[in-house]
């Protein structure tokens, strides 16, 4: 916190945000609280790396541009499921049969949370891309994504988990792609 205060100094930042840029190129932020000289809340974050804390002063426009969805158009995949890439990844591509680590959050159409892998901890759920019999949409939805990517899925009832008889939306984040193939790959 002291390093952040030294970085901010006594001047006003106006519409600028103090953000951290980590080596994985993920933006993060943390509310610092109100400072005496500035009426607005300053945003900042820290990144502990082997080289120490790294801060970068960016404009509000640049920050919002980084948060904007990669696409607003939905495309259809097998089974009638529709997908929209919210963030394009930069790592390995998830191909059919490979083991992949994902985090997901499922919601009903009214916005009520159905399930989330984030609640079970930071460890991702490992599945076989393209072959998940208990939840077909999850396996099909990850195909073609790159590590670090985020995709929204609109899932019809026939591709959903057993017992779910409604259309749901899932936000899927691909954490890692393994080089190993799963047991269902032929």
Textual characterization of the structure:
- The structure is a single chain.
- With 186 residues, the protein is mainly β.
- Helices cover 11% and strands 33% of the residues.
- It is built from three helices and twelve strands; from the N terminus they run αβββββαβββββαββ.
- It has helices spanning 2-8, 60-67, 136-141; strands at 17-21, 27-28, 30-31, 43-44, 56-58, 75-76, 82-87, 98-108, 113-116, 125-128, 150-155, 168-181.
- The strands form three sheets. Strands 6, 7, 8, 9, 10, 11 and 12 form a seven-stranded antiparallel beta sheet that branches.
- A hairpin with a 4-residue loop joins strand 8 and strand 9 (113-116).
- Residues 1-51 have low confidence and may be disordered.
Keywords:
mainly beta; 3-stranded antiparallel beta sheet; 3 helices; globular; disordered N terminus
Note the beta-strand portion: 25-35%
Termini distance?
Answer: 53 Å
DSSP helical segment count: 3
Overall mean pLDDT stands at 76
What structural category arises from helix and sheet content?
A: mainly beta
Number of strands: 12
The biggest beta sheet, please?
7 strands, antiparallel
Amount of helix = 10-25%
SSE order, one letter for each helix or strand: HEEEEEHEEEEEHEE
Q: Specify Rg, calculated over alpha carbons.
A: 20 Å
General form: globular
Low-confidence stretches: 1-51
How would you briefly describe this protein structure?
With 186 residues, this protein is mainly beta. It contains three helices and twelve strands. Strands 6, 7, 8, 9, 10, 11 and 12 form a seven-stranded antiparallel β-sheet that branches. It has a three-stranded antiparallel β-sheet with strand order 2-1-5. The protein has a two-stranded antiparallel sheet with strand order 3-4.
